[in-house]
Amino acid sequence: MTLRTDWTLDEVHAIYNQPVLELVTQAAAIHAETQATGEVQVCTLLSVKTGGCPEDCAYCPQAARYHTGVQAHKLLPDAEVLASAQRAKDSGSTRFCMGAAWREIRDNKDFDRVLGMVEQVNGLGLEVCCTLGMLNEYQAERLKQAGLYAYNHNLDTSREKYDDIITTRTYDDRLNTLEHVRKAGISVCSGGIIGLGETDEDRIAMLHTLATLPAHPESVPVNALVPVAGTPLADQPRVSVWEMLRMIATARILMPHTMVRLSAGRQEMPVTEQALCFLAGANSIFSGEKLLTTPNPDFDADKQMFALLGLKPRKSFKDVPEGAVLMGRGKAPVEA
């Protein structure tokens, strides 16, 4: 299948607004053509530095300006992070993501410690992902050298809606970070959140932006807002499964080889709704009791769901060419 990065906004609009059953059927067919059906990657996300963030993201309980009850803590000890990564691997995760509530990476001892964490988790044979805020080219290169596999930096919403949600960094700041990640040869993970009070047009515009980047993100998380008391969006209604299906199915059609991640909001979704999302093209989840600071299904619940639906976990480094091995710090995959 030919990958396109020249989708028009009208084309995305037409795909998204199909009758939902036709949309899901089309997405399922593309998923079967381009992905291993019945295979879902299990990821775990750990907050290695929580709270105290200077930004004003209206959905985020970690913003210092909101009173949400989140207890701020500095960087976790390396041993605690490594133990969490080992537990995640033992429970079936193949990607371990580390998040720090920073506006941007600073070249200091905390960043040096994160680089060490990346190297250690990489040594466990897990795909290592980080979400640390904005970064520059040099910092992206350092993360790559430490063994980072993927970097998450979400667009969150459309350019038009963005200023209603965040004023402390620009949309172009986000796009620039994605460019630095891509240039460093790190896998790009970027998606958004629905349920922020945006319109369907905003959702379509965000998907259009992602699908017309110079290269499709290797993974696109689709998050449903988890409203948190104390944030400006605390009273937003729950996102319906039909809204999630439209987002997931459209993302699958536009970006057929991308991992589409059923992310935040899954705690409120029964297995029947999650099954529909997998049918529509989702092929990754986050498992573990928390997704940074919000509730998330635990490993046992997800194992039961996998057994019921006949799903199997995706292996680590599946996209690394056969015969290549991930070397240590500073090394790219090389022929075995």
From TrEMBL:
Record field: catalytic activity: (4R,5S)-dethiobiotin + (sulfur carrier)-SH + 2 reduced [2Fe-2S]-[ferredoxin] + 2 S-adenosyl-L-methionine = (sulfur carrier)-H + biotin + 2 5'-deoxyadenosine + 2 L-methionine + 2 oxidized [2Fe-2S]-[ferredoxin]
Pfam families: BATS, Radical_SAM
Presence of the UniProt keyword Cell cycle in the record: no
Enzyme Commission designation: 2.8.1.6
Cofactor(s) needed: [2Fe-2S] cluster; [4Fe-4S] cluster
TM regions (residue ranges): none
Domain named Radical SAM core: residues: 38-266
One of the GO BP terms on file: biotin biosynthetic process
Pathway(s) of this molecule: Cofactor biosynthesis; biotin biosynthesis; biotin from 7,8-diaminononanoate: step 2/2
NCBIfam families cross-referenced by the UniProt entry: bioB
Function: Catalyzes the conversion of dethiobiotin (DTB) to biotin by the insertion of a sulfur atom into dethiobiotin via a radical-based mechanism.
Family: Belongs to the radical SAM superfamily. Biotin synthase family.
Summary of subunit composition and partner proteins: Homodimer.
Name of this protein: Biotin synthase
Gene coding for it: bioB
